[in-house]
Amino acid sequence: MNGGGSKERIPVVLEGGSHGAPAANLITLTQVVYGLHAVSLVIGAFGAASVVGAFLFGWPSIIAVVINYVKRSEVRGTWLDSHFSWQIRTFWYAAAWATLIVVVSLPLTLVLIGFATWAIGLFALGVWAIYRITRGWLALADRRPLVRVTN
Asked: Is 26 exposed, middle or buried (0-12, 13-18, 19+ CB in 10 A)?
């Protein structure tokens, strides 16, 4: 903390030694992307779909990932790049883990344990997705990258 009581901003040094200073509209866009993912998670938590199902197949998350890929070049060299990577990885890792859960659980349903592995796996994956979106959004609110990359 500095003398004025506000949070002190530590400059982030990215690969290549450049200091990332993103445009305000890109910060807002990153907020929107987190918001879209959060809407999908809420729909899954309180709607008829599962958290993971809504996160992977809901329009808000799909739109968010498309925005990430379309706008990614604009955040390169800024601290927002870590947020875009975080959001993209969260989506694709969730898809990979969901596929693994289905592949493992489906044959196990023949001996009934698959229903438990399915439910437990998707529940844990939903909690993980909520954690990832929350952690990223909080870091964005503090205007800091998720992973500090230095030379």
From this structure: middle
